[in-house]
Amino acid sequence: MVVDLTQDRDLEHLLEKSKTDPVLIFKHSTQCSISAQAYDEFVEFAEGANGLVCGAVLVIENRRLSNSIAERFGVRHESPQALLIKDGRVVWHASHWSITSDSLRDALVTYAESPHQRN
User: Fold this and answer.
1) What is the tens place of the pLDDT at every residue in 16-25?
2) Three-state DSSP class for 42?
3) Which of 3, 51, 84, 101 has the most crowded Cβ, counting Cβ within 10 A?
4) What is the DSSP letter of 35?
């Protein structure tokens, strides 16, 4: 499931969810072809990740929120950018061509799932 993040309260809701389950944030530039490709990979992954809550920020349209995310987590802004959040903190992030459905899946298994959840 992908939810649009447009306001601080949207981010806060997602971070609250991260206290019990990992969440994924994708920062997307609607003016960038690399971001469009990464967004397709992100959506493909999100649609197949049953139960994973994912948020998308359109960085041009929601610049303040995008900058707030970078400042809050201490991760330099890039777009496209994916951030995996667990317990309210970034446990993995990637940008540009490093964002693929495979890299997102690997990050979820490696950094966010507890050992008893891994297959």
Assistant:
1) 999 999 999 9
2) helix
3) 84
4) H
